[in-house]
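FORM 7B: Structural annotation worksheet

SECTION A. Query
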Amino acid sequence: MTDSEAGETDDERRKRGRAPDPILPGQKPPKIVVPKPVAISFWLWIVAGVVLIAGQVALLVLKDELTEGILKQIKENPVPGQPADPALVASGVNTLLWMLFGGAVTFAVLFALFAYKAREGTRSARTVLTVGAVFLVLVELLILRGSLNVFLLVSTLLVAIALILMYLPSVSDFFPKVGRKLP
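SECTION B. Predicted structure
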């Protein structure tokens, strides 16, 4: 350890791309001062995940109405040579909704995990959240463009606001860029 590294705070070490000092048994970890926009962003990520799950629960509750609507569309616009089997359609809708529910739970857990790590100042967690937000927007625009799922729209809006808060200039020092030079 050089003289310049002695007595540095964990934040000073992080800005230089170094790991914080190890915490020995019996020592209390240093208190990290989280900027207010990052703290708000954390809670927005959590709420976005909960809203995403709530939207899928609502779809599961409305499964029968959704199945009836699909069967009605099939009867109005039949495909020649492909008769519609109501049991098969119901099974497909059920499978799709449970897969979407699993995806929503996965996204919510990943949002919570990486938002927590970002709240600690981990730059890579902020990057992962950015990729997750882009993926969520792409799913909404490209795959579900015909459906007007209010829960998905609200969740996407919350994610966008949370992401903007994490990239404000006032919090850029909280996510230090790690240098490329070896120590």
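SECTION C. Observations
The chain has a mean pLDDT of 83. Helices lie at 10-15, 36-61, 63-76, 86-119, 123-143, 150-166.

SECTION D. Sign-off
Analyst initials: ____
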